[in-house]
């Protein structure tokens, strides 16, 4: 038992923590999982502007990633197909058909310049030792936009998972701009596969979305799928359509896949079937419609945390301001250092301080002579002269001193001073600086990222409505069986396997069941019909019955509420049904038994003259006389249903 305690409290928790933080869940700062971060770090290290074999990149990345080349290769292909940071050459697979990429030795890639613009800043990046201590890798990249929303992410860890949908690059940047201005931001997913999207239940990234294929129904005898739902492939979509056709959910004659660079799946329809007959079925019974649940889980401050879309946008808006301030401070420091060195060189050459060292015989004397030479010009210097400065000056070749271009130096110093002034102005209004930076990114790259998915509020397709009612429900009174699988019996109504039916038995008990293939319901079934709530709300059930005290009563009711498979009673216990009908206006004719002092042996009652009540309400007493028979007549005196 002690071993089990250690196993769970130590080993399992360490493993769970490792998988959550170092494998499956992206970090909110740069939106990347560790393997993705290591791949981009490797590409930045080997970048020379040319394409590199993926096999070489994978090998380089293995210095940082301890899980083998297969996992690196798969992650690199997935990241490359997102079309943001990695330029590709060769067959990287097809996101539409699901075809796999070629082997790593045959395909090439390189880092896209946009990665250096919004992701790479070594001077602001915290580096840690790799798994074997031989190298150093970034803890997170100083990303300037919320890459988790742009790239999307999916991962399963111990006890938790993440599902972040990709969003449009331009819209994400515009949302960050809105957050910087203090506006309320709204952001919805955008998928590389296109399609239609209903975000009614998106709930700021904590709900779900519905995605649909884009169907071309311009030809009434064929349906062409032009765009597929996110998360599917043409192969899986075709398989789902063929499966639905085999099960009788939809009717198709032929399906052809002409997909190459764009999706084109042609569905030809059989004789007598048109596009309007199958569109709802495609959405209801195939992968043409998908529901995707969203879970914005990311690592924040070394812990997993659930976010909403506005929280991620606001976090990155604040983070962008901080990163730009750090960049400007760092650049200001570097420029001041350059200004100091250029000023030292100019004074050293222009004032001929190097002449003062000609008579010195010791190194210290030379250094002191140079130091004394700068004393009259201290006001022009950015900082005090150090020994390192003097050593740098003393290493300047005589040829360079003799050809020194003072005017060029002055121009360079002037450019540095102008840039320093720009930096100081930017530091006064970092929000404006952040807005300008994002606007520059949009101008440079925005046209390459058009929105692909169309936002649309869907009309919900009920599978019961979409399924064709091509099966005949039958009731065999001799055997007491009901179902669409019977070959004999009275035809009741056409049904689909998704329908529900209302059954009222001989004792006026009722229940609603899924339409059965074969179900024993007993003899004397009073009613069997579709349990459609709208239909039932318009159907009035009329029962004539004898109570256990001998009185004859009439009850009219509608059945609008029910629980599936639950038994209910329409009549009081001990009652016996004498007649049943669904006529809205008819006549109930009671015939009494002959007895002394009974002069009137028949009596008619107009059904429409009695109120329609709930199923729990009692009936209205018609007579206390002993009844020999009951007839329900139409206006033409035709008997509909009787029971003696």
UniProtKB/TrEMBL annotation:
Q: Name one GO cellular component term.
A: cytoplasm
| BP GO annotations | DNA topological change
Name this polypeptide is given:
DNA topoisomerase IV
User: SMART domains in the record, alphabetically?
Assistant: TOP4c
Taxonomic placement: Bacteria, Pseudomonadati, Spirochaetota, Spirochaetia, Spirochaetales
Q: Which reaction does it catalyse?
A: ATP-dependent breakage, passage and rejoining of double-stranded DNA
**NCBIfam families per the UniProt record, alphabetical:** PRK09631.1
**InterPro entries hit by this protein:** Topo_IIA-like_dom_sf, Topo_IIA_A/C_ab, Topo_IIA_A_a_sf, Topo_IIA_dom_A, Type_II_DNA_Topoisomerases
What keywords sit in the KW lines?
DNA-binding, Isomerase, Topoisomerase
**Molecular function terms from GO:** ATP binding; DNA binding; DNA topoisomerase type II (double strand cut, ATP-hydrolyzing) activity
Q: Which residues catalyse the reaction? A: 106 (o-(5'-phospho-dna)-tyrosine intermediate)
> Which family does the UniProt entry place this protein in?
Belongs to the type II topoisomerase GyrA/ParC subunit family.
Q: Which PANTHER family match?
A: DNA GYRASE SUBUNIT A, CHLOROPLASTIC_MITOCHONDRIAL (PTHR43493:SF5), DNA GYRASE/TOPOISOMERASE SUBUNIT A (PTHR43493)
Q: Which residues form the Topo IIA-type catalytic domain?
A: 25-441
Name the Pfam families for this protein: DNA_topoisoIV
UniProt source species: Alkalispirochaeta sphaeroplastigenens
């Amino acid at each position: 038992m002690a071993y089990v305690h250690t196993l769970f409290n130590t080993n399992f928790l360490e493993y769970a923590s490792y998988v959550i933080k170092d494998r499956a869940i992206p970090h909110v700062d740069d939106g990347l999982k560790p393997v993705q971060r290591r791949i981009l770090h490797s590409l930045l290290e080997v970048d020379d502007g040319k394409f590199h074999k993926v096999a070489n990149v994978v090998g380089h990345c293995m210095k940082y990633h301890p899980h083998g080349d297969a996992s690196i290769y798969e992650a690199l292909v997935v990241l490359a197909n997102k079309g943001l940071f990695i330029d590709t050459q060769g067959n990287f697979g097809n996101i539409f058909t699901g075809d796999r990429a070629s082997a790593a030795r045959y395909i090439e890639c390189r880092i896209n310049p946009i990665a250096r613009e919004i992701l790479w800043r070594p001077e602001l990046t915290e580096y840690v030792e790799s798994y074997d201590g031989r190298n150093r890798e970034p803890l997170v990249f100083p990303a300037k936009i919320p890459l988790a929303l742009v790239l999307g992410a999916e991962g399963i860890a111990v006890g938790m998972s993440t599902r972040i949908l990709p969003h449009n690059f331009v819209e994400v940047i515009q949302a960050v701009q809105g957050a910087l201005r203090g506006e309320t931001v709204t952001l919805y997913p955008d998928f590389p596969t296109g399609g239609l999207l209903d975000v009614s239940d998106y709930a700021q990234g904590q709900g779900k979305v519905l995605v649909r294929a884009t169907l071309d129904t311009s030809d009434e005898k064929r349906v062409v799928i032009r765009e597929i739902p996110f998360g599917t492939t043409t192969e899986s979509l075709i398989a789902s359509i063929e499966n639905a056709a085999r099960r009788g959910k939809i009717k198709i004659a032929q399906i052809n896949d002409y997909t190459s660079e764009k999706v084109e799946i042609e569905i030809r329809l059989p004789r007598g079937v048109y596009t309007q007959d199958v569109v709802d079925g495609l959405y209801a019974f195939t992968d043409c419609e998908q529901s995707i649940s969203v879970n914005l889980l990311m690592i924040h401050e070394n812990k997993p945390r659930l976010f909403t879309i506005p929280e991620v946008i606001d976090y990155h808006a604040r983070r962008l301001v901080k990163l730009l301030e750090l960049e400007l401070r760092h650049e200001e420091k570097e420029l001041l250092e350059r200004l100091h060195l250029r000023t030292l060189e100019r004074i050293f050459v222009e004032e001929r301080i190097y002449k003062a060292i000609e008579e010195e015989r010791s190194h210290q004397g030379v250094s002191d002579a140079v130091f004394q030479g700068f004393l009259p010009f201290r006001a022009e210097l950015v900082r005090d002269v150090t020994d390192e400065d003097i050593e740098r000056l003393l290493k300047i070749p005589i040829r360079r001193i003799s050809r020194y271009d003072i005017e060029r130096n002055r121009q360079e110093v002037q450019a540095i001073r102008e840039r320093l002034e720009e930096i100081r102005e930017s530091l006064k209004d970092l929000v404006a600086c952040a807005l300008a930076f994002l606007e520059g990114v949009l101008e440079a790259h925005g046209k390459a990222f058009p929105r692909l998915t169309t936002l649309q509020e869907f009309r919900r397709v009920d599978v019961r409505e979409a399924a064709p009612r091509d099966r005949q429900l039958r009731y065999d009174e001799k055997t007491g069986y009901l179902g669409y699988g019977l070959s004999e019996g009275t035809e009741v109504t056409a049904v689909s396997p998704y329908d529900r039916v209302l059954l009222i038995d001989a004792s006026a008990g009722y229940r609603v069941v899924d339409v059965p293939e074969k179900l024993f319901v007993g003899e004397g079934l009073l009613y069997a019909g579709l349990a459609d709530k709208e239909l039932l709300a318009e159907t009035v059930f009329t029962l004539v019955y004898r109570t256990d005290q001998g009185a004859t009563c009439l009850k009219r009711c509608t059945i609008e509420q029910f629980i599936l498979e639950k038994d209910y009673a329409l009549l009081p216990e001990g009652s016996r049904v004498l007649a049943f009908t669904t006529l809205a206006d008819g006549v109930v004719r009671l015939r009494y038994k002959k007895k002394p002092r009974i002069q009137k042996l028949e009596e008619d009652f107009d059904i429409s003259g009695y109120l329609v009540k709930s199923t729990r309400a009692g009936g209205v007493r018609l007579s206390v006389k002993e009844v020999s028979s009951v007839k329900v007549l139409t206006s033409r005196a035709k008997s509909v249903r009787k029971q003696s």
